[in-house]
Each structure stands twice: as C-alpha cells, then as structure tokens.
Design goal:
mainly alpha, elongated
C-alpha cells in the first residue's frame, strides 16, 4: 500500500483534475496527467489513477441510480 502522504496527494490531484476535466470537456485529461506523473513517480501515478477511476466509477454509479429512481417515479405516477 502507498504511503498516506502519496495517497493524500493523489486524492487532491484527482479532485483537481476532475474539476478541470469537467470545465474543459477533456474527458481523458486524467490519462495525460497520469503520463506526466509516471515520468517521475510510478507510485504517485498509480495512486492518482486509482483515485480518478474510483471517483469516476462512483459518479457513474450515482448517475445510474438517479436514472433508475427517475424511471421508477415516472412509471409509478411521480411518487
């Protein structure tokens, strides 16, 4: 497991990267950042990519649940 400081840095960088991705529409920006990180620290690159993928998966899961609930409410008369 990575050093807690590395994980903290990776988490912060992931949050910042996702914010830039959302603003610019560059949905693969995290891959470019990963490449930059990998050139100097494979440990930080791996922690960053894990943090990004976890957050992206969480966002997709939440969107899926929201859509399911919306469809259910529409089918049951909006309750």
């Amino acid at each position: 497991m990575a050093d807690p400081v590395v994980i903290e840095m990776a988490n912060k960088l992931a949050e910042d990267c996702l914010a830039v991705q959302n603003e610019t529409g560059e949905d693969r920006l995290f891959m470019e950042v990963g490449t930059v990180l990998g050139a100097s620290s494979q440990t930080l690159e791996e922690a960053f990519l894990t943090a990004i993928r976890t957050r992206m998966a969480n966002d997709k899961g939440r969107a899926f649940l929201a859509q399911k609930l919306k469809a259910h409410r529409a089918a049951s008369g909006g309750s």
